[in-house]
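Researcher: Sequence of Sulfurtransferase follows. Predict its structure.
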Amino acid sequence: MGPLISTEKLAAMLEGPAPPVVLDVRWRLAGPPGAESYAEGHLPGAVFVDVDSELAAAPGEAGRHPLPEPAELERTLRAAGVTGDRAVVAYDDADGSVAARAWWLLRWAGHTEVAVLDGGYAAWVAEERPVTTTVPDPPEGDIEVRPGGMPVLDADEAARCARAGTLLDARVPERYGGYTEPVDPRAGHIPGAINAPFTAHTDARQRWRDPDDLARHFVGLGVRSDAPVGAYCGSGITASAAVLALEVAGFAQHAGLYTGSWSHWSRDPRRPAATGEEPG
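Model: Prediction complete. Tokens:
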């Protein structure tokens, strides 16, 4: 299974002998809660998983969305019916950047058969595919979370990546440049980081760009196959989409994810912050 799945392929798999586990991870930084959208309608059989409380640990010194403890993540995934030998598909209702967090966590946990629904809930509904308000009661899964399936960066490693390779800042230009900062302690970006907004991974229909197009996009940002590459955002959510997009683009090396991201970096006043449009 590739990192993306079409609505057509998912619909066929759901009717087949081995349907995937489907996770609804709708979430918005400023609300309303994704659980409300899930209650109004979701894909048949989809289980809602909360980004804030289930796909992240409590906010604190490690940032706004730290990695969950492996045992806690395992309990969440098992409750959703995730097994070690069954594919998983995650979706949101925007551009896939939130669903990418679930994709990344499952890959980090050692599960390789996981994909993001291309076009998400909006594409599914636009094609008049079935939705429901019935909340499923899946059988307990048996997945064993084994961290290490995807590379993780800490603050020092992110700083080195920005100098030795390419560190992608997936936030919008206004936050990268330090012109505004609505949620974190300081404005700006990690010195040397390149602005690569997560919104550039999809087209006007919020469908993911094709692999060759994404490859040209990242090469234009300075990504090279012979140098380290990492990604961060505000709190480690949308930067997951950069990691996914790089895989779609065909880069063999998995990008490191600075999971604490700017919400962690900016907490320490000793860490420098660059401002403006240039990496610094």
